[in-house]
Amino acid sequence: MPIESTARANSSNKRKTIAAWCCYDWANSGYTTLLITVFVVYIQRIVFANQDTTGAVVWAWCIAVSMLVGALLSPFLGALADAYGGKRFALTTAAFGGGVCCILIGLLPANQVWLIVALLVIANLGLELSLTFYNGFLPEIAEESEFNKVSAIGYSVGYFGGGIALLAATLFLWLNQSLDLATRLRICIVGTGIWWILFTIPVLCVLRDRNPERKDSNWLKTCRSSIQDTITTFSQFRKQRVLFWFLVAFLIYNDGVQTVLSQASTFALHELQFSEKNLAAVVLMIQFVATPGAIIVGWIADKLGRKLVLAGCLLIWILLLHAAWFVDDSWEFWVLAVGVALVMGGTQSISRAIMSTLTPEGQEARYFGFFNLSGKATCFLGTFFFGAVVALSGSSRLAIVGLLLFFMVGLFIIVRLRIE
Predict the structure, then answer these.
(1) Per the confidence metrics, is the pTM higher than 0.70?
(2) In degrees to the nearest 10, what's the CA dihedral of 28, 197, 39, 265?
(3) d(CA 235, CA 345)
(4) Beta-carbon neighbour count of residue 205 at 10 Å?
(5) Gap between the Cα atoms of 91 and 96, Å rounded
(6) By the 8 A CB rule, do 62 and 387 touch?
(7) CA separation, residue 114 to residues 47, 56, 202, 289, 343 (Å)
(8) Does residue 30 contact residue 196 with C-beta atoms inside 8 Å?
(9) Under 8 Å between Cβ of 64 and 391
(10) What is the C-alpha end-to-end distance of the chain, expressed in Å?
(11) Tens digit of each residue's pLDDT (9 = 90 or more) over 335-375
């Protein structure tokens, strides 16, 4: 075959592979977006109807448990998938399993309370694990110089896909008023599972593990090696004071960010009596405002410095959560949601940029692997804290305002670091 033809074929295969990889962002974003709109309404208003704050507590702790188990399993399952050349199999298994759980949640009668709760935990665990294998494919489908571009494309596809899925669900809820709310929500949940499975199929058909199975691989030895790598990287982190304390600050305030995103729906439902349609509309707005918000914050950071702008973002989070205590009308919640959308993506993107600046040259993969693992390992704390406050006080307003602590501690650490 002529060299030019071979080059064109390789380029075409690469584009197809990247498209299939990005397709999974589209697939799982349908679930993550409907999780905080359709699923939360179904669990709290239908499955746990007339049970005060029980639904809110169970919801928060379901997310916390799935995140914690996912964090504990991810490094070991990821290492095994690498050793045995099984990332594609592991990714599709986790995704298909999560999709099937969604379908079963929608098909089961609402009085099967604890079975539905168990399926919700497993579905969310499927998401957490699938993203571990999904992220592991990036170095295999793109050159190092293309990582930022390909990753950005994946995120963009995901935001758009999540918005399309939510828009479809919102239109279905609005246009089928002849059906009762429980039936409409259950149909949307079944549709979410089908969406997740359907758009994961390109991963199964196109992606291939670049590293074949190593015949001499021993799963126990592989797991021990994974633990040793994590311990070694942590010891290296501790020797670099600024990087270490930045990571500590990130883990704390990022936990607050993730908890606000997953539990703000509970605040809207319980404190403001939001309808499922209004809640979907708010999240839809956030989907489309977050991207330009991240771009604007990034542009300001280039002008004023990353540390200053990150501190400003954290201060805005503090002000938004403080204002949540006084919110009584739906329009006030909309204003807060716009503020969250504007700083949400910017906070995370600046954090990644600072991490890149502080990471020693030539050790990016190891340090970012630990960075991502640590973020997963602590993200359950905020949701557990939120559920505990609701359980003890009966107030989701107090719980959402209580998250101020995460941002205040994070800001205190950041302002004391000489990041620049």
Answers:
(1) yes
(2) 10
(3) 30
(4) 11
(5) 9
(6) no
(7) 9, 14, 33, 36, 36
(8) yes
(9) no
(10) 52
(11) 999 998 888 877 877 776 777 677 666 555 556 556 656 66
Query: Mean pLDDT, the chain, as a whole number?
Result: 82
Indicate if 207 and 305 belong to the same structural domain.
Answer: no
Residues 195 and 49 in one domain: yes
Contact 135, 70 (CB under 8 A): no
- At position 87, the amino acid (one-letter code) is K
Higher model confidence: residue 407 or residue 271?
407
Roughly what angle, to the nearest 10 degrees, separates helices 364-378 and 241-271?
A: 40
Contacts of residue 257, defined as CB under 8 A and 6 or more positions apart, other chains included, come to: 317, 344, 347, 348
Which domain CATH number covers 92? 1.20.1250.20
Sequence letter at residue 121: V
Residue 335, amino acid:
V
**222 contact partners, CB below 8 Å, separation of at least 6:** 79, 80, 83
For the stretch 238-297, pLDDT in tens is: 667 787 888 888 888 988 988 888 888 888 888 888 887 788 888 888 877 877 777 787
Return the axis-axis angle of helices 113-136 and 3-34, rounded to nearest 10°: 150
Candidates 22, 309, 13; CA nearest to 150 is 22
How many domains does the chain fold into? 2
Per the model's pLDDT, the better-predicted residue between 169 and 217 turns out to be 169
